[in-house]
């Protein structure tokens, strides 16, 4: 049975996702034919639109710097390092060591500061200050005692923040890193498109800029959508819309609870940290907001004649498949029903329209 997911859930994660779809498969339609989801209501009866074009959004657009490109390349070089056994037994910076360690707080061993057979790259700053440097110059087979202090802002376990600790560390083995240099050979082995160092730098710059632009787009779309919804008046919801949305959401939670092997109430308590009554009150509030948002987006779509074409839907599905690891469009359509996919991609088109018609100003010039 195909999933039918609320569009707002899909939108929360181009990273995690839900989508929307069309009412038919459109196999015999031309690319210019519009694709719509059949509704049993006229959205104009429920929504009075306010201002939704020209909305001001404060955002400082970012441009990738040379330093960021260099830093990313350095990270890529470090990721390409391999380690191999060596006759040398004395630990040096950059070596990967295998260690057993036991940490004592106030003279007592703690499980959370103890491990066996742990791999550690010296100089990676994985452990607290002084741990890695304290092993440099010592030999395989040696047990090293390190008297250190957890940092005050130790977020991994706040109960250890600022506490003195004594580690007893046994060095089991070491491997030395390979030498990896930025040259054309490295580029050819690690890039699908670049063949030279200069091409690789431009590839990295483009990738980083696309990431910045994607972040900006997501933020701008979120802000302008929120304002457009706030500016609109939703007179009421179509009969049954809220009830259906609540039912669908709760069914998803019940399915998740079943998959986890726990009861519905227990799942809500452990996963959401609230009682069933509080949870269902919040679900109703959430779904009320979602339904209002959905109606406003539909109203804008109608007012601006933004219905998806078959070609746009096909292109959007293909891009989503590529970006999110699906094997094919068929696999995507097996996962989500057609209406869900169409509505999601329709919403993305409206969001892009709102973004393109927004006024983006830097914080230094904001009137807010």
UniProtKB/TrEMBL annotation:
Start and end residues of each PPIase FKBP-type domain: 94-156
Pfam families: FKBP_C, Trigger_C, Trigger_N
A GO CC term assigned to this protein in UniProt: cytoplasm
Main location: cytoplasm
Alphabetically ordered keywords of this record: Cell cycle, Cell division, Chaperone, Coiled coil, Isomerase, Rotamase, Signal
Coiled-coil ranges (or none): 183-210
Subcellular location: Cytoplasm
InterPro entries: PPIase_dom_sf (IPR046357), PPIase_FKBP_dom (IPR001179), Trig_fac (IPR005215), Trigger_fac_C (IPR008880), Trigger_fac_C_sf (IPR037041), Trigger_fac_ribosome-bd_bac (IPR008881), Trigger_fact/SurA_dom_sf (IPR027304)
Signal peptide: 1-20
GO biological process: cell division; protein folding; protein transport
Catalytic activity: [protein]-peptidylproline (omega=180) = [protein]-peptidylproline (omega=0)
GO MF terms held by the record: peptidyl-prolyl cis-trans isomerase activity
Family per similarity comment: Belongs to the FKBP-type PPIase family. Tig subfamily.
Reported function: Involved in protein export. Acts as a chaperone by maintaining the newly synthesized protein in an open conformation. Functions as a peptidyl-prolyl cis-trans isomerase.
Entry protein name: Trigger factor
Native source species: Acetitomaculum ruminis DSM 5522
